[in-house]
Amino acid sequence: MAVNNIPSVHLNNDAAIPQLGFGTFQIPPAETKAAVTSALNAGIRHIDTAQMYGNEKEVGEAIRDSGIDRSDIFVTSKLNNDVHDPAVVADALARTTERLGLGPIDLFLIHWPLPEVGDFVETWRALEAEYRAGNVRTIGVSNFNADHLERLLADTDVVPAVNQIEVHPYFQQDELREFNERHEIATEAWAPLAQGAVLDDPVLAEIAEEVNRSVAQVTLRWHIQRGDVIFPKSSTPERAAENSEIFDFDLSQPQVERIDALDKNHRFGPDPATFNFVPE
Ligand code: NDP
Fold first, then answer.
1. What domains, with CATH codes, occur in the chain?
2. Does the predicted TM-score (pTM) go above 0.70?
3. Which atom belonging to ligand 1 lies closest to the Cα atom of 168?
4. Any idea of the CA torsion for 167, 236, 27, 172, to the nearest 10 degrees?
5. pLDDT tens for residues 3-52?
């Protein structure tokens, strides 16, 4: 059911994901239950977490205690960089499922390709087996470049349902987004506000004034009109509510084009081609 008029995006396995969710990166475990509860109260029904964030347990508690039907909430988590080994993928997923306590989760991603570490193709095959066994509803990847995806598409059976990548007005990634689209892989835009870096932008401020909205709302609306799935993070309940109120206005084509022109090809996060970090 659409809450707050939030539309869903249909994934290549027919699952539906709410186009707007709530991100939980850098929310400490002790603050996570309150933050996720605020997001749910604001009408958000899609939560993005990861093994790396250390807050899956608290995300699960907030969802279980919300009284909202499990089937109305979409939950994503991600395989950590230290478990890129087909022998331990099933166990890693089982631990995530247990920590969340919600039954099979809706979407599980390989968090980073780590091209120099293990073989992400073998890791993906292990995830395919978990998907076929019904231990997870949908599988996808994160931070995969086109050459990483090409290897998966050539050597494995299940096409990832999503590719979660850094995208914001300063790093628009249109080439990779188009690659995803050609292969029926939905693009999820992480750090949709560039972790706050776009909020002082004068062009965005001008447009915000024109439509009588905040800069954050204008930026999030731009992502929505491009068709990407987003999940801004905020530990501030008022901002979480503000971020959900983006479905009752439109940016005009000229306004969209002014935002398109802000692209600086500037990445804030690590480069997936060279990022090979594995925690101790
Ligand atoms: P975001 O682009 O969502 O920005 C979050 C920052 O913006 C916080 O500092 C927050 O402040 C601030 N903010 C949020 N809303 C507003 C608002 N309305 N007005 C003013 N400031 C605001 O960055 P994230 O890195 O958190 O990205 C979103 C999600 O993407 C993550 O939480 C995570 O789920 C996912 N992600 C995935 C990655 C991957 O490798 N797959 C990597 C990074 C992120 P405050 O909290 O203080 O309100």
1. 8-196+228-235 (3.20.20.100)
2. yes
3. 2
4. 0
5. 668 999 999 999 999 999 999 999 999 999 999 999 999 999 999 999 99
> In 8-55, which ranges are continuous DSSP H helix?
29-41
Q: What are phi and psi of 14, to 5 degrees?
A: 80, 0
Whether 193 lines ligand 1, by a CB cut-off of 6 Å, is: yes
Residue 130: which residues within 8 A CB-CB, separation 6 or more? 89, 90, 93, 108, 136, 139
Task: Tell me if 130 CB under 6 Å of ligand 1.
Answer: no
Measured by CA distance, the residue closest to atom 26 of ligand 1 is 233
* 45 CB burial (10 A radius; 0-12, 13-18, 19+): buried
Q: Is the CB of 219 under 6 A from ligand 1?
A: no
Strand partners of residue 74? 46
Residue the block writes with tokens 């002014």 = 258
Question: So which residues are the catalytic ones?
Answer: 53
How many Cβ atoms sit within 10 Å of the Cβ of residue 30?
A: 9
